[in-house]
């Protein structure tokens, strides 16, 4: 949907019933969560961890079967990054990351600016965000409707919650995955994968330490990582259009996220 369709189709033949998908619309915190979970996975495997060190594959870029022959990955299931809509992965366990649409789309715009073709033909940040807000709504809505059924195979995580309390968010995700981690282990992962530290790795182009290579380089990959940064970039008209189309959907999915957390804390 958003990247190499060929690689995705090849990998799709080898999906397993036990696979877990780390899903999101682009620029919603997927890579940060991959790094946090990778830190936990390696820590549970007895390794000393450091900034970077991703061990969770991107379904659009690598051969999943080859990737998971890595003996360092010592959990009994595979976690796979994807940006696909729910309809294509609905039979699997899913962690769904979502982000306020204005921030998400602004970040996506700057990510796309890495492409010379995009730079030549783009209509500016306001036009880009206005053109994609319906796509964002459609992506979110599929997962929202599934969450409304109370499915125990879908876990919601907002970028906002992850940003404000990453230790708690990481522990909750690990609980969903049945990975038994301590508060101290979660804190180590968060300390290792702080935004500025992984941003520094990306600015150096250190793909080996990061654990993933990025087509077109890493510029603007870890850009700001802030909440409400879009208010400084978008016109009032664009913010109004985004709010009109998406605020109800966003509010609903945040409420369902809150309900999930309440259920976790009450058990």
UniProtKB/TrEMBL annotation:
<comment type="similarity">
    <text>Belongs to the sulfotransferase 1 family.</text>
</comment>
<feature type="domain" description="Sulfotransferase">
    <location>
        <begin position="17"/>
        <end position="237"/>
    </location>
</feature>
<dbReference type="InterPro" id="IPR000863">
    <property type="entry name" value="Sulfotransferase_dom"/>
</dbReference>
<keyword id="KW-0808">Transferase</keyword>
<dbReference type="InterPro" id="IPR027417">
    <property type="entry name" value="P-loop_NTPase"/>
</dbReference>
<dbReference type="Pfam" id="PF00685">
    <property type="entry name" value="Sulfotransfer_1"/>
</dbReference>
<protein>
    <submittedName>
        <fullName>Sulfotransferase</fullName>
    </submittedName>
</protein>
